[in-house]
Amino acid sequence: MLFKAHTLDAIARGDVDLAFRRWTRPTVKTGSRLRTKIGSLLIGEVTLIEPEKCTAEEARRAGFEDVAALERDLGKGDGSLYRIVIAGVEADERTSLRDEMLSQTVIAGLADQLGRWDKAAGHAGYHRKILQLIADHPGMAAADLAAQLDVEKLKFKRDVRKLKEVGLTISLDIGYRLSPRGRSFLDGR
């Protein structure tokens, strides 16, 4: 489930607390979290609704002037209409990890984790190579970084997301950079 930047800004201000999507099946569940640039959105109730039951108040709570504007945005499309309550926004837990300086115990734990990922990928040292490549070329496009490792771009991006999950990388508009935690891990301190 994606949100446009202006909608995320409105959610952060508290102006928007509903969303509507047409889906063949929902991509979020009640009680789940959705990571975004503004933090983790807390997903409240996800309800299947009939389009004609959408009210003007709900359209405004979703950031639209009226129901007609919401309908234009949704289009006819395939799938059923769902109303998604945005129950709040919390800080992305990865953000606090990024600035954490590492003890030798944490470094060893991360090295073990990367070792397991490397084994699953069938390439010893592969994830450390990704980190070094990002350190050497911050802001370089994912396709160019992937080409330097001779891997498919989508696989590379998936692997960088794993590193981001443990707070080692930060996504930029184009490419990535190491977080302070990632730099500390790569330097072994």
From TrEMBL:
InterPro entries xref list: WH-like_DNA-bd_sf, WH_DNA-bd_sf
Name by which UniProt lists this protein: ASCH domain-containing protein
Organism the protein comes from: Phyllobacterium myrsinacearum
